[in-house]
Design a protein that fits this description.
- Helix content is 33%, strand content 11%.
- It is built from 14 helices and nine strands.
- It has a six-stranded parallel beta sheet, sandwiched between helices. Strands 5-4-6 form a three-stranded antiparallel beta sheet.
- Strand 2, helix 9 and strand 3 form a beta-alpha-beta unit.
- Helix 4 packs across helix 13, helix 8 crosses helix 14 and helix 13 crosses helix 14.
- The protein is globular, with a radius of gyration of 23 Å.
- The N terminus is likely disordered.
- Bound molecules: carba-nicotinamide-adenine-dinucleotide.
- Carba-nicotinamide-adenine-dinucleotide binds next to loops.
């Protein structure tokens, strides 16, 4: 995929380009050589909620017969394999997404989130002007505030990172409604996976099961020496952080919590679940992220064509700059073909829904529309567990 750095490391500078199409070409000669992209489309239809159960079963049976040479495909079948899927949502907003969930079409929801979901807990995000962590790092006169998460810079001067770590270290904050909404999705049996970029581990405190969470940029749950690789406990690092000391290894180098710095590889779980989960996803909810950091940001382009996506954020991010082409034949394909940009600028868009505002308001509105409003409020108001594990 074009969204992936070849070395699979985090890169904040890559902004996603348009993804190549995953659509099927219809053969001009009417033969049954429908091509491997049509097989991809078949797989996608079978994996997604776009076709009904009956359509899926019929399609699979006929296709298997075709593959084993027992029959040829009809014109309609070939057309079905290449046609754009039906309109995904009744409206590109919270009400449309709620209707989609209520209709039972969302059974494998993936949530992707970032620092914005923890802002109301008191943890600043990176990039919001005036309050973000990068703004607060001005006193270090760094050439670029992102250097604080550069592994080379950390080896030279770990102090800015340690200071920043103190401000978002797990154990000091209460999860937000956005975290509890993810748990609610899980309790309603709808959560396939929660891909978080956050390192504050508020997901664990909110009670989202660990196996449902992918800490895409690592966490404070473990730590290693950057030179000899010796492992240290999170308690060791925690004590140092809160006594304003550096955690130093017995070899003399600095110890770093296992959060992913720019230039470092993401955890294996990220790639495993990226490949396993996204083809099954039937609704993507993206919350509180600027979608600036790759390869995470490119995940939005990994759901099947036409699979609805909801962005809940203070600002519009990753939007396609222009409306789709005016060509009548191309427009439907273009509209529902998955790319790593949202189609908010398309006035006919019924696939990418937007709630622009605080995450907590967005999830409360969605929970209300689903009839889960009180459940969310009660969960948010309940006392925290005594000893949540990181
Ligand atoms: P970012 O680049 O700072 O973007 C945050 C996004 O959230 C922006 O688009 C904001 O407009 C939006 N936002 C801010 N507040 C709210 C709110 N209340 N409701 C809705 N939207 C809001 O952060 P990203 O997560 O996109 O960048 C990825 C980095 C940030 C990851 O590597 C994280 O590790 C890192 N980070 C994590 C934390 C944390 O763990 N809480 C805090 C700060 C940074």
């Amino acid at each position: 995929m074009s969204d992936m750095n070849t070395d699979n490391t985090v890169d904040p500078n890559i902004v996603e380009e348009e993804q190549p199409a995953m659509d099927a070409e219809e053969p001009d000669d009417g033969s049954d050589d429908i091509g491997s992209d049509a097989l991809d489309r078949l797989q996608m239809l079978l994996d997604s909620a776009i076709a009904s159960e009956e359509e899926r079963a019929q399609l699979l049976t006929r296709f298997l017969a075709f593959m084993s040479g027992r029959r040829t495909l009809t014109y309609e079948e070939r057309a079905f394999l290449s046609k754009p899927p039906p309109k995904p949502l009744i409206s590109a907003d919270i009400a449309g997404v709620a209707e989609y969930i209520r209709s039972g079409r969302a059974k494998n929801i993936i949530v992707m989130c970032g620092a914005g979901i923890s802002v109301s807990a008191g943890i600043p995000d990176f990039r919001t002007p005036g309050t973000g962590l990068y703004y607060n790092l001005q006193k270090y006169n760094l050439e670029d505030p992102q250097m604080v998460f550069s592994i080379d810079y950390f080896r030279q001067d770990p102090k800015p990172f340690y200071e920043l770590a103190k401000g978002l270290y797990p154990g000091q904050f209460h999860p937000t409604k956005a975290h509890y909404f993810v748990r609610l999705l899980h309790e309603h049996g709808l959560l396939l996976r929660d891909f978080t970029q956050n390192i504050d581990t508020l997901e664990c405190i909110a009670g989202i099961p660990k196996e449902k969470t992918v800490f895409s940029h690592g966490s404070f749950a473990s730590a290693h020496c950057v030179s000899c690789g010796k492992e240290y406990t999170p308690e060791f690092v925690r004590k140092k952080v809160f006594s304003d000391e550096l955690a130093v290894c017995e070899c003399g180098a600095c110890v770093k919590p296992d959060i992913v710095f720019f230039g470092e590889k993401l955890p294996d779980a990220f790639f495993h679940h990226m490949v396993e989960d996204f083809p099954k996803c039937d609704l993507l909810i993206v919350m509180g992220t600027s979608l600036q950091v790759q390869p995470f940001a490119g995940l939005i382009g990994r759901v099947g064509d036409g699979v609805p996506r909801l962005l809940i954020n203070m600002e519009v991010v990753a939007a396609k700059p222009v409306p789709p082409p005016a060509d009548a034949d191309e427009v439907e394909r273009y509209r529902y073909r998955t790319s790593s940009k949202f189609a908010f600028n398309d006035p006919e868009n019924l696939r990418d829904a937007l709630f622009m505002g605080p995450c907590d308001d967005g999830v409360q509105a969605l929970a209300d529309a689903l009839g889960w409003g009180k459940e969310l409020q009660d969960m948010f108001g309940a006392p925290l567990p005594e000893n949540p594990s990181l």
